[in-house]
Design brief:
It contains five helices and four strands. The protein has helices at 43-50, 73-79, 96-102, 112-116, 120-139; strands spanning 3-14, 17-28, 58-63, 66-67. The chain has two domains: 3-79, P-loop containing nucleotide triphosphate hydrolases (Rossmann fold, 3-Layer(aba) Sandwich); 96-145, no CATH class. It is globular, with a radius of gyration of 18 Å. By secondary structure, it is of the alpha+beta class. Strand 3 and strand 4 (66-67) form a beta hairpin. Helix 3 (96-102) crosses helix 5.
Length: 151
């Protein structure tokens, strides 16, 4: 399986306290990977490094062959990596599919006026977002709840 993300020798320290020490791992394309460990093990810190919220003291994060270690979070998100928080908040009265679609709007080419006027570019963007969101639901086995409202 092809590697899409590599974490290479990442260290993070906060005022002399080592939060992450020499972490390396590879994540394959189309795979599901988890980070497990006890409280205080550095899991959240590592996710923050990968998403660009924290710059590591040492080491690198490589995404699709590009060093993204020093990129700010909004640039990392534009590449397709973003984090969520444990206090997940769904948009009420939107379907599961629509909630997944929200995450893809950062990838659109159409702007506010194109969307407001429903110009062809915005309609194409919306179709592509819907198709991608459906694929994501298929990947995690949630298509049966695609039309269910998030309560």
């Amino acid at each position: 399986m092809a590697t899409i993300l590599s974490v290479e020798g990442v260290f993070v320290s906060f005022g002399g306290v080592m939060a992450v020490a020499n972490v390396s791992c590879d994540v394959g394309r189309q795979s599901v990977t988890s980070i497990i460990g006890p409280n205080g093990a550095g899991k959240t810190t590592l996710i923050n490094v990968i998403s660009g919220a924290i710059t590591p003291t040492d080491g690198k994060v490589i995404f699709e062959g590009q060093d993204i270690t020093a990129l700010p979070p909004h640039r990392v998100a534009e590449l397709g990596i973003a984090r969520t928080y444990q206090n997940l908040r769904l948009f009420k009265h939107m379907s599961t599919l629509e909630n997944v679609m929200v995450a893809r709007h950062i990838k659109t080419k159409s702007g506010f006026f194109s969307c407001a006027l429903k110009l062809p570019l915005s309609r194409r963007d919306e179709r592509a977002i819907r198709e991608n969101a459906w694929e994501c639901l298929e990947f995690v086995g949630l298509t049966q709840w695609a039309d269910m409202d998030a309560l």
